[in-house]
Amino acid sequence: MTYKVAALYQFVPLPDYRELKDPLYRICLDLGIRGTLLLAQEGINGTVAGSSEAIDALMSELRDGAVFEGRLDNLELKFSTAAEMPFKRMKVRLKKEIVTLGDPQTDPLRRVGTYVSPADWNRLLEEPGIVLLDTRNDFEVEMGTFAGAVDPRIKRFSEFKDFVKAELDPTRHRKVAMFCTGGIRCEKASSYMLAQGFEEVFHLRGGILKYLEEVPEAESRWNGGCFVFDERVALGHGLVERSGETGPSDE
Fold first, then answer.
1. pTM of the model
2. Where does the record place the Rhodanese domain (predicted)?
């Protein structure tokens, strides 16, 4: 059996997020879906896997079902496949943030950078004076990145704001392009940088996963594999599993 994997997120006000946990968990359990979904007042984030029919049913429930009452009408979605079930169990967790930056002034619901489609990404990188930032953790960057990208060498995303304060200057770095795995970290990162006075901030819509899905390998500027937080470890062009990759050590 081939499993369908859905990576999803949406920043949307969910003041009742605590009450959504149990019904969402039951829906996933009834469909035989496994993975992790995070709920917070600012939205939903996560990756889940199941049969193609089960994932399609969950997406329909998220968008149009009674639990979310039509609020998840702009989900950022990436689909891929796995030869084996990449998750051991189903988890729905409540969080303060669906991706943790730890800056209360940063609000992607109010302001984010300019989205750039995968089809236009290569063209943006050719513009003079562009600063290309990889907003992911160091072990992810080691596995693969875009040519010429700045590695902030962070252990966790919450350290990104410290990197910006120490290494970047809005008076000198006037045009910044950034990317991450699926796009969610860039929503927070671009919102933060705009609040710090950076004038032009761009981010890759749908992240690396959408780029690898849509851009032909012959035209790609991506080198290596894209780390994913499940037992597949890494994906390549066409969102195909890469063999022989290992995740970060626990030592």
1. 0.88
2. 126-220
